[in-house]
Design brief:
It is built from five helices and ten strands, in the order E-E-H-E-H-H-E-E-H-E-H-E-E-E-E. With 186 residues, the chain is α/β, with parallel strands linked by helices. Helix 1 packs parallel to helix 3. The radius of gyration is 16 Å and the shape is globular.
């Protein structure tokens, strides 16, 4: 059975975007981006909400020829993975290996985990909240940026209680910190 991994880059106070919807403050440097690449490399299928897909679909068409190696590497990782976009309004997707589902059904996701040979990732805090509340997420990876934004879109949903086991901590020269937790099952 495959694991389901939720990863997010957030402010120290736990937001993926500030109150204006801006997330430019959390752009990873090459060292952090390389760590994200290593986390994403083994993923077979990415699950995205509409807004997260809108941000990331640039990787379908981006010319990376003059980009640093870490960017070219991520583009290859992105292109090699399947993607499911959950949206009630999106009519088409532009990228290969990408399909649309109208909503995240926890039972269907449970079956996908059971039949997948490679891990799955879930991106976007609103979509991840559904999977977290359904008890389907196995690991959390939070990359905390050295900034406090005071409010906005939280990385984790209100009212959620999870018992976690700290698996690893990594500190980056830029001040980012990567926290890796496994979800403890009752």
């Amino acid at each position: 059975m495959a694991g389901l991994i939720y990863a997010a880059i957030a402010s120290l106070d736990g937001y993926v975007a500030d109150t204006d919807g801006d997330f430019g403050w959390c752009a990873p440097d090459e060292e952090v981006h390389a760590a994200v690449n290593e986390l994403e490399r083994p993923i077979g299928t990415h699950l995205y909400g509409r807004r997260m897909y809108d941000v990331l679909q640039v990787w379908d068409t981006m010319d990376t020829g003059s980009e640093p190696p870490v960017i070219r590497d991520f583009a290859q990782i992105w292109g090699a993975a399947d993607k499911i976009v959950y949206s009630r309004t999106l009519e088409t997707v532009s990228g290969a290996r990408t399909r649309i589902e109208r909503e995240l059904d926890p039972d269907k996701l449970r079956r996908l985990k059971a039949t997948s040979t490679r891990d799955l990732s879930i991106g976007g805090p609103e979509l991840a909240a559904v999977a977290l509340r359904a008890g389907l997420v196995d690991e959390l990876h939070l990359f905390l940026a050295p900034v406090v934004v005071g409010g906005g879109n939280p990385a984790l949903p209100d009212g959620l209680h999870l018992d976690l086991e700290l698996v690893g901590v990594r500190r980056f020269a830029s001040g980012f910190v990567h926290l890796h937790h496994a979800v403890r099952r009752p």
